[in-house]
Amino acid sequence: MDTSIGSLRASSTSRSGEKTLSQLLDAARARFEEEEDPLALQKLQEALQIEPDNATALALKSRIENRRSERQIDNWYRLGGSTSTITPTGMPRGSAECSSTPAQGGTCAATAGGGRPPGAGI
Fold first, then answer.
1. C-alpha span between 43 and 37 (Å, rounded)
2. pLDDT level of residue 18 (50, 70, 90 thresholds)
3. What's the whole-model pTM score?
4. CA separation, residue 73 to residues 29, 64, 70, 83, 85 (Å)
């Protein structure tokens, strides 16, 4: 009888842990959707204490960290007074002097300090 109680207790604890983990992940997702990243990360940390290799928790944590990094970069641009944005080619908008867009047959010359194209002399 002692063995069956221990087995029942272990099973109950496992189900309780699964329910708690599920609740924590649901709460973290809800906080993420509401853009409450610090609270979402707190819930994820609790979930990862229960199951450190939980793929769902790790993936959501990564998404939150990426979003926070992107926001920090945006803040740096705003604080720096820069109105440039990154183009699809990865170059900051305004980092080249163009007569028109290259797709329209125009030419661009990247500037290297002082607003001169490279090799333009001193």
1. 10
2. confident
3. 0.52
4. 24, 14, 5, 13, 11
